[in-house]
Every structure is written in C-alpha cells, then in structure tokens.
Target: FAD-binding oxidoreductase
Amino acid sequence: MSSSTFRTVPSSADVVIIGGGVMGAGTAYHLAEAGVTNIVVVERGELGCGSSGKPIGGVRAQFSDPLNIELGNRSLRAYQDFPHRPGADIRLDTVGYLFLLTSERQAADFETCVSLQNSLDVPSRMIDPAEAQRLCPYIGTDGLVAAAYSPTDGHARPGLVVRGYADAAARAGVTFATHTAVTGIDTTGDRVTAVHTDRGRIACSTVICTAGAWSGRIGDMAGVSLPVRPVRRQLAFTAPLAPPAPRIPFTIDFSSTAYFHNSDDGLLFGLADPDQPDGFDTTWTPEWLELFRAVARHRAPALADMETIGGWAGLYEVTPDHNALIGRSDELTNFLYATGFSGHGFLQAPAVGEVMRDLHLEREPCVDISPLSAARFRTGAETRPEAHVV
Model:
C-alpha cells in the first residue's frame, strides 16, 4: 500500500478521515467501495500505530447490550469473509471465547445475556466447569461456578486488518497522508470547512473523526465534545512452549479481567490494571505481570510461573459508560465520529465502517446507532450499560 511520501497534503478533499487505525482504514474502504471519491486519511504516525497496533485482537459477539451484539456479530461475519472482501489474510482463528464465572450472580447475569445473544443468532451457551476445563486444560475448576462459551468468536491480527482495508482503499484511489498531524479545524456556522495539518490545509466537505484515544483533542479543535480518555493496557508473551500449547479459546477470568490465549508458538497474557491512571504513556512495565500471576496461581496454576519474553502496551479509548461514540455531531452537520470503543473497537470495526459509510451517504444504517450519540452524556439520555467489558 502506498502511503503519502509528498511533503504537502492535497489542498481539498470531499472527505477527510482523521486517524489511520482500523476504524479510519475500514471507513475509508467502505466509502470507496460505495463510490465515494477524493478521500484523504490523515494519520500522525504509521497506519495502525495507535490502539490498532496491538498484536492480537479478540473478535466476539458475546455482549450484554443488543446493539453491541449486533455490531459484533455483523463484524464477525465480515472478518470470516475478509479473504474475499476486501481480500486479505488476517489470521482469523475461530477458537471461541470462554468467560469463567465465579459467583452465582455472574452465572445468572450471563445466562440472561446468552438468551439475548441466542435471540440475535449468536450460538453462545452456558457450560459447566468440567466442560470449561476440557475446552481449556490450563484452568482449575476450584471456585468456578459456570462458564459462558461461544464457538464462533476468536481472534485475528489487527495490523493485517488495517493493512487489508488500507491496501484495498488505496487501490480505489484513497490518499493516505501518514506522518501528518492535525493541528486545527476551521468551521463556519454549523459546518467544518477545512482541516489544518503540519503539511498544509485541506478544504473539505466532510470530516470523520476516528482518532481513537486522541479523539477528545480532535473534538476540542472543532468544538465538539467527545468524552474519550486514554488508559494504558498491557500484555505479555510467553517463551515458546514445548510441547506446543493446546489450541484453546480466548479465555477470560471475568472477576479479575485476566485473560490468555494462543499466540504463535506460545501464549499471550493480559489483564486490566484497575489502578492504571489515565494518560498517553505506552511504556511497557513488566511489574504489572505480577497482577496476572496472582490471579493465575488460583485460576490457571500452570500459567503462574511460565517464562515471559517481553510484552506490549497500548491505549484503550474509554468513555464514561464503556460504550462507543458513533454518529453525526449536533453542532457541526458535516462532522462525523466513530471512537471511544473502550476495548471493543477492533471487533466492531467492519460493521462500524458500514455505518459510517451510510451516515455519510445519508442512508439508513444497518443498525440503529442513535443511542451511541456523543450527545447522550450531556442531554441526560440513557447511557448504554455494557457488562461484558474486559
């Protein structure tokens, strides 16, 4: 895929997309596929250098909110079809997602959610601790009440997805201005008229903000409130395992958020540190691993002392209710946004790309995303509770 090597950006565009991660690349692809021309994607670093750069991304439709279930399920189907449309291998591994539940309350809540998921064509089911252990031999059943499992979930490689969307979009004529920072946004009345970058000004008809953890700053430039805060998340890789690890589901201890799954010739470990302060720091600090090991000693003892050979830190883009911001600005009619996914952006990206295409073309989207408007936080509208947040 050709990124821009020119020193200045195009002077005008029909659509400027700010952010070259999975949301920006996917939106560009879906717009171009629908015949939209003169699209410029502005990215301050390399494509996928923000949250989309994570080594492995889970894909699932197991949620508690029907809107998230629909977005996840539609995206799962798109990821299954990715080798044909847009045409790239994303190393999709359909190993399923396994949520480990340690209280009767959790089990009851997940049972309700499984019924909802089943009604929306997601083949999830409740299973007992013994079956959970058969699916994932690493876990111990002590203290386990039940588990929730969906065989069609799994994981893929976000970097390959970004590249696949971007390559196809570039073939369709989309310009990718990488290593280009947005420095300001011009507005006149209720419209954005131009985006300023450190490589020049782009006059435009529509702006779409897909800037992830940096979206609050972009919103501020336009006078649009996008309540997104950056929170560091860390993960680690084990040394190669011999004999090789069994093929296991993406396994999550729901109480602690500790998770693990296959990764190349070993395993990947992750856990959300509840004391992690907000900020843009993505330094990997091995000390957090002790939090994971403490959980593993009880839940999956064989993992507790496995040798690790490094790790990675990235940013979640978190909103007050841990649900996305998707929509069109009330204040600026040609400012659209898709951000704040709070950890489930990658798995919803294909469906959201379709939604952004439809919003731009003023067509009815495949799902009603009006409840995800950023205005919900200031109008007193009902926020979207999502229980299955990791």
